[in-house]
What does this fold into?
Amino acid sequence: MTGDETLPRARGLATWTTRRWLRVGVALSLAVLTVLGVTGAWMLGRTAALSDDLVDVKSQALNTSFRLESALLNQETGIRGYGITGNPEFLTPYQQGLTEQTADVRRLDDLLRDDTRGTVDLRAVESALEAWQSRIARPIAASPAGAPSPLATERAGEGKTAFDRVRTALGRQQEQLRAEQAAARDDLTATMRQRNWLFAAIALVILALAGLVFEGLRRGVTRPLERLGADARAVTGGDFARPIIPTGPADLRRLGAEIEIMRKRLVQELESSEESRRLQDEQAADLQRSNAELEQFAYVASHDLQEPLRKVSSFTQLLQRRYAGQLDDKADQYIAFAVDGANRMQTLINDLLDFSRVGRVHHAHQSVDLDSVMERTLSALSVSIEETGAQITCDPLPSLVTDPTQMGMLWQNLIGNAIKFRRPGQQPHIKVTADREGDLWRFTVTDDGIGIAPEYAEKVFVIFQRLHTKDVYSGSGIGLAMCKKIVEFHGGTIAVDPEYTAGARITFTLADAPAPAEEAEPGPEGAHPAENAEPVS
It folds into this structure.
């Protein structure tokens, strides 16, 4: 073979991936093991066949021949005794011998049906036996009992000669059966010896095959991976100038090349890291400035909204005082609605302003009866509860040192969501529980609604993340995000229970009192004290 013919083959092998090498290796190993298995199975089958032939045929045939000889001797002894004495008791061994003869001949016929020589010997025995029985045994047995049979004396010499022929035929048969038994034993011994050598060879081949597999894996997979890992660890340790040298099968070389590309890219990134850090510092400063501006904007926006609301509330209250009883009942009711709506909107703006500053401006916490907060929450949601027919059960709730406004917002969002995300056409059932766990209280809000899939258990607490379109369920997507912010501000945790599948179960923890925290940040410059006062729900 020339060098030009060898080069394409080498290039072809160089393109083989680890998977292809493994497939070829596994296929060759399976082929070798299959050949070895078939050969071993054939050898085991042959050994078993020879063993069965020796034990079940050859030895059984020889033993049966011996039993046949014993039965014939019993017949000869019985006939001779009966012929001499005329005593019928001597016919008993003769009759028993006939029965045994029939069974033994039938057994030999079955055992020697595939042995032509053995069948010929058996027929010779039967022929000699028939001659003796027809001339000697049956005539003497038919003689009257009580007196010696004259035939026994007359045919004594003929009987001896005839029975000697039977013995001679039996001797030839037994000799032949012994020879066949010895030959079968020798054949079995030789086959077992071959089997042992074959299985020793199979074991050696399997060991050699295992050695080749391990060596191939070491050279083709383990060693290239170890070298690649060493280069990668060197780069990880800070030696970014160390090149990654690809070795091994094609896919490992591609992996090494990709890591080398990544190393070069990392070097480029490190070279520009200082510039990136400077930009990050500038962005952090901009973000702090933006947060301060947003806080100022939130205050100003709420302040500017409160001013027209104060006017609306003042004038509606003035209308209520001046014209109360002068108009019809509907007018008084509408004026009351307007006054109440303006007051509640003003309270809501104050609450939203306080909530936007959760985590940055601490409130003056106070002891809050959560049962009372729950009652106010259910009252606020009474319209939704009545429209949906919601059944809400609540365990006794503790009193905690918290912010009452935020607790009201927390319960209102959780109960409101449980009502909103009910199953279509089904009356919602909601249960609120509170259990003591060490230093914390664990609260759960459980419903039988549409539930929250496990893959969205974290996403639902991200602000503005919605799992449904607005035309299916209304809302802005900040409810559970607000709950998370409130709970974490109070030092607790909140999560979806993934094991509950009959609806949704939100569980959160709160402490009896918040941990000591830094002092609150001052309000925006120029804020009126009354406008920064703690709202009470």
